[in-house]
Structure formats: C-alpha cells, structure tokens
Amino acid sequence: MRKKTSGYIIQWLILSSLLICPTYVFAQKKKDKDKEKTEKVKLYQGTTIGVEIAGLGNYVLGSDILSSDVMLQANFLNRFLPIVEVGYGKVNTLSDATDIRYKTAAPFFKVGMDYNFFHNKPHLPGFLFGGLRYGFSSFVYDVDGPTMTDPNYGGQIQVPFSYHGVNTTAHWLEIVGGMKVKIYKGFCMGWSVKYKRRLSYTKHANTEPWYIPGYGENAGTAFTLSYHLMYNLPF
C-alpha cells in the first residue's frame, strides 16, 4: 500500500513539474522580454529648440500685432515633454470704431508639459500631443482717446483720456493640442491649437489693457493657432 501511495506521489510530482515548468519558463521569458523592452526606452530622448513663425508672418503681412516665441522642450521616455517658452509681443493700433490708440511691447513667459499620445510608436516620423501651459507677462501700456466731457457739470468740463506708462501684470492658463512632424534629418515642424483662460490681471480705476503680450486681446478666454519650426539638438 505504501509502494502504491509512493508511486502515486511520484507520478503526481512528475506531472506537476511537467505542467509548472513550461508555465514558469513562459512567464519568465515574458518577464524578461518586458524588462528588455522597458530597458530599450531611454529616459532622456533629446531636446528640441524652435521658433514660432505664424505671428511673425502676420506682422510682416501688415498686422498691427507682433507675437512670437522661442521654445525649448525636453523629451523623457518619448512620452513626457516639459517645455519652456520665452516670447515677445507688441501692438500699436488705432481703433476705427472708438478712435482709441493702444500701444504696448513686452516679453512673456510660459512653462508647461506636453504628453505624446504616440509614445509607443517611435517608428513614426512625428507624434500627436496634448498639454498645459502657465503664462505670465509684466508690461507697460499707453492708451489715448478722444477728450471726454463730464456730464456732471453740464458738459462744460472736458477730461482728456490719456494714460501712459500703466504698469500691469497678467496670468493665464492654456490647454494645448497639436502635432509635430520630422521634415529633414533633425528639422521638424509643428502646429498647435491653444485654448487660453485668463486667471488675473492688474486692474486700474479708469483703464484696462486691451492687449496682453503672449495672451492676445484681453478677454476671459481665447483661441490661438501657433506654427513652429524646430530642430532636434544633436545631443
């Protein structure tokens, strides 16, 4: 009876080993393969520098507004893309409807992060991304308009509408979506759509900014389109 029991135990052990070993080997191979795949994706994938040309083009073609920036973006795991943008915006315009002239010129700054939705397809010549930006600008503006008449004094007193050197700061957020494509060796081009939401700006008693460098016309929300020429730095 003991011999039969021992035989059954030995058979069970052999059968179990035959079932367990292939499963373990398969699992180990899969684990090694996943580990190898993970190790192939380097943490640092490079840095890209670029310049926004749509705003430059509009200004050259006769627009009263100039807005452009230089961007520097790193690539981690081909997935996470932190970015810094430093730009310059200016406007000198006269409104035909109100006869008010507005003038300002100042730098602006943005910092944020993009996410590459095609991170698992490195063979593609580009990628689709989405991200967020925080924007900030500190600027001085001038505004001049027609002389105003004070109704409290029977229209006898006229008040000049002219404010120069008005100091202002503005903060905003941007939701960004766009595409980047390689065109030749390390050169790339890309476009993006930005939904902007103003957070705050300095308010004054008798005037407010019409245009905010980096943001655009002073409204609660805004949409803008950007077009960049870029170069992947060779390190």
How do you describe this structure in short?
By secondary structure, the protein is α+β, with helices and mostly antiparallel strands. It contains 2 helices and 12 strands.
Write the layout of secondary structure elements.
Elements: H1 2-40, E1 44-52, H2 54-60, E2 65-76, E3 80-94, E4 101-116, E5 126-144, E6 148-150, E7 157-159, E8 162-184, E9 187-201, E10 211-212, E11 216-217, E12 221-232
Global shape = elongated
Fraction of residues in H or I helices: 10-25%
Strand line-up of the largest beta sheet? 1-2-3-4-5-8-9-12
Unreliable runs: 1-10, 17-27
The succession of helices and strands, N to C, reads HEHEEEEEEEEEEE
Descriptors:
single chain, 235 residues, alpha+beta, Porin, 2 domains, eight-stranded antiparallel β-barrel, two-stranded antiparallel ribbon, 2 helices, 20% helix, disordered N terminus
Verbal overview:
A hairpin with a 2-residue loop joins strand 8 (162-184) and strand 9. The longest helix is centred in the first third of the chain and has 39 residues, at 2-40. The chain has two helices and twelve strands. Mean pLDDT is 85; it is low at 1-10 and 17-27. Helices cover 20% and strands 56% of the residues. With 235 residues, the chain is an alpha+beta fold. The protein folds into two domains: 1-40; 41-232, Porin (Beta Barrel), CATH 2.40.160.20. The strands form three sheets. The protein has an eight-stranded antiparallel barrel. A two-stranded antiparallel sheet has the order 6-7. A two-stranded antiparallel sheet has the order 10-11. It has helices at residues 2-40, 54-60; strands spanning 44-52, 65-76, 80-94, 101-116, 126-144, 148-150, 157-159, 162-184, 187-201, 211-212, 216-217, 221-232.
